[in-house]
Specification:
Elements: E1 4-12, H1 18-26, E2 44-49, E3 53-59, H2 69-79, E4 87-93, H3 101-110, E5 117-122, H4 129-140, E6 147-150, H5 157-168, H6 187-202, E7 212-221, E8 226-235, H7 238-245, H8 250-267, E9 271-279, H9 287-292
Parallel strand pairs: 1-3, 1-4, 4-5, 5-6, 8-9
Antiparallel strand pairs: 2-3, 7-8
Helix pairs in contact: 6-8
């Protein structure tokens, strides 16, 4: 059988499970996951290679109505990934009763490209099966999807189903990347995202959405045989800074400990991680800071 290779973009509204699906498909933790919407801020590429195929998955930020320049960047980043790929994996939620305004807008954009679209109705574990039928029927009338597939991105069986449908749509081609490559994300970007994930998961109010992470020192300490990382955590208010640091610095210590443990597991290295928290008013509308944090 001829080798197949190509690119697949995963799109959808915030919090529909795109990053959870990506991590399931790759078998590794590449995209950060949180119950909070708009977790992914950049288009993350991961590579899945077997003896028969190579799929380059692109996880995109949730498509939403932007409220600042960071939001503008996120939406433009997601929409730019609809063309030049071989497959679009479009995710919606099974818990939706009808097709909302946000999904209607996405569907209108999908109609403008020639890329085949797989519709995944995610989180079927949260609804009764009969409730899915009206939603499947409603989506089937909006456009000509290649397949409409009810799934649960936390169920291991989903991986085989989705991979099979994606690979069917790939062209015969040589692989684009080495077989052992997992992601195109630089290590420092992965660390930056891991730190942000811990803040998202540990702090329950609105603070995390106003948080950005910048790696300022990233160097190998050969004498101590470890990777030394220093990072700034930017927030928008002094009150937010206090919450992130916590009483006696407890919250910041917890963020640092969990981030370091995850980073060591992913990179396979001993890590020394030092975090600082700084207030930068309205940084999500500051072009200089956005560029510094990689949102270009």
């Amino acid at each position: 059988m001829a080798f197949k290779s190509g690119f697949a973009t995963i799109i959808g509204r915030p919090n529909v499970g795109k990053s959870t699906l990506l991590n399931l498909l790759t078998g590794e933790k590449i995209a950060i996951m949180s119950a909070k919407p708009q977790t992914t801020r950049t288009a993350i590429k991961t590579v899945v290679t077997t003896d028969e195929y190579q799929v380059v998955f692109i996880d995109t930020p949730g498509i939403h109505r932007p409220k600042n320049k960071l939001g503008d960047y996120m939406v433009k980043s997601a929409m730019s990934m609809l063309e030049g790929v071989d497959v679009i994996v479009y995710m919606v939620e099974a818990t939706d009763k009808t097709i909302g305004h946000g999904d209607s807008k996405i569907i209108e954009s999908l109609k403008e490209v020639n890329t085949p679209v797989l519709l995944l109705i995610n989180k079927i574990d949260l609804v009764e099966k009969p409730a899915l039928l009206p939603l499947i029927d409603a989506y089937s009338k909006t456009m000509d999807f290649e397949q409409i597939i009810p799934v649960s991105a936390i169920d291991a069986l989903t991986r085989e189903i989705v991979m099979s449908e994606v690979v069917k749509l790939l062209p015969e081609s040589e692989p684009y990347f080495p077989a052992d490559m997992l992601t195109d994300q630089p290590e420092r970007v992965l660390i930056q995202e891991i730190i942000r994930e811990k803040i998202l998961n540990l702090i329950s109010d609105e603070v995390p959405h106003g948080v950005g992470v910048e790696i300022i020192i990233y160097k190998e300490n050969e004498e101590k045989d470890l990777l030394e990382i220093h990072a700034n955590i930017y927030c928008e208010k002094d009150s937010h800074k206090g919450i992130i640091i916590g009483k006696n610095g407890d919250m910041l210590k917890k963020i640092g400990t969990y981030a370091r443990q995850d980073a060591e597991n992913i990179l396979g290295k001993k890590i020394f991680l030092k975090l600082w928290v700084k207030t930068k008013d309205d940084w999500r509308n500051n072009d200089y800071i956005l560029n510094q944090l990689g949102y270009k």
